[in-house]
Amino acid sequence: MNTLLALALLSTTQPAPAWLAGDWEPYSNAFVGLRMLSIGKDSLSWKGCKDVHFDVLESEANSVTVRLAPGSTCSLDDEPPTRMDTLRFTLRENRCDLGVSIYASPDAAKKNTPAAEGLYGKPKCPSGPAGQAAANLSTTIR
Question: What does pTM read for this prediction?
């Protein structure tokens, strides 16, 4: 019985919320080079990385923070390339737009000092023009 309890405790990884799954198009200029973001229940694909596993660190009603697998090749388009370590996704009220904050380390995430922030949107979602959505969020790689 103790072995079963230990196994149950080890597998308490939070699932990603259902609203996060799917394909997201970049709205922000900072993320255009990263192209489409595809998210599954426990992995994501982005430019330079495919089917990279992530663990959910924190999940709230409209926000989720994930940490990518240690050996992932996901990185920003800056020089030198910043490795993506921790990502925070925030779903906007219209349920179509996704704020994305990218952190180079867990420490940067704790201090809320992103390496880049921007906006993605669901394809064919009536959230308004992409240009207008992008204007509402910082698009600067830091």
Answer: 0.80
